[in-house]
Amino acid sequence: MEGKIKMADGSSFTAITGFDGDVHRAFAGTGGGPSVQTQRTLKNAIHCSGIGLHSGLHVAMTLKPAESDSGIVFRRVDLPGSPEIPALWTHAIETPLCTTIVTGDVKIATIEHLLSAFAGLEIDNCLIEIDGPEVPAMDGSSAPFVFLIECAGIVEQRAPRRGFRILEAVEESEPHRSCLVKPAETFEMRFEIEFDSRAIGRQVFDSEIDPAVYKRDVSRARTFGFLQEVEALRQHGLARGGSLENAVVIDGDQIMNEGGLRYTDEFVRHKALDCIGDLYLAGGPMIGRFEGIKAGHALTLRLLKSLFAREGAVVREPLLAPVAALQAESA
């Protein structure tokens, strides 16, 4: 069975029911030890469509359940052979204003908002079938993707969930920009931005990130840009699908969007949203603290490359179930 729902921004999605996924709770360790989290995927396939932020092309996309340990994989169904690209830093390239993955001559751009939603909701495995070169922008945030994932449903799988624990601090920097990761017991993020426009100014976001925090404090933050830069961006093949429907637009010191902002510091929260998606290119969740100052997609990608190139800086390990979840389950 399937049902089509129209979104306020003109995009749409279709929920397709009928995937018989097994649901498994976190399983106990040997000898009564701590419970380990299990991997998660979608319960049902779900379809959406919309305009690419930079290409301006109409794109259709279907999110599908995937087997344990398959990760997040994109499939270009519009191309001969339907080539697949895993969402991993080893397939990512530096591109302006978005995150792009490639295999051979095949590319998929602007994947960061969708990846961010997967990271925020702790989705480990998903197959994304897409008929164009760019993920649809939807409303410019990850909230529509969060909504899609929740409509599709989430199931736990048998395989243990693994994450990347930061053991040593690693930093990347360039003039006026920097980012680093360092050890912490949970996933934490601090992001700082500063713009001359009084509409933005200096903003700081600092928080531990879990699904509840992500949905409430991060997911609704939209991408943004300055009106005076739009024409130059379009001449370079960027922002061709950008509008007040999928971005916050600033003209001097004024917000042009009729409804204003969703958060008083929406701009820095969107930077955090982007970064959460970019860090998920590691191939799983991170246990550590990220700190960024004016960092963009390219600098975050360089940080991931440096992290995995440095011996002893990171280790992949099973993730223990949160104490609160265990207490609730045993109550």
From TrEMBL:
GO terms for cellular component: membrane. The lineage of its organism: Bacteria, Pseudomonadati, Pseudomonadota, Alphaproteobacteria, Rhodospirillales. Catalyzes the hydrolysis of UDP-3-O-myristoyl-N-acetylglucosamine to form UDP-3-O-myristoylglucosamine and acetate, the committed step in lipid A biosynthesis. One of its GO terms (molecular function) is metal ion binding. Its cofactor is Zn(2+). The gene is lpxC. GO terms for biological process: lipid A biosynthetic process. It catalyses: a UDP-3-O-[(3R)-3-hydroxyacyl]-N-acetyl-alpha-D-glucosamine + H2O = a UDP-3-O-[(3R)-3-hydroxyacyl]-alpha-D-glucosamine + acetate. Gene3D superfamilies: lpxc deacetylase, domain 1, lpxc deacetylase, domain 2. This is UDP-3-O-acyl-N-acetylglucosamine deacetylase. The active site is at 297 (proton donor).
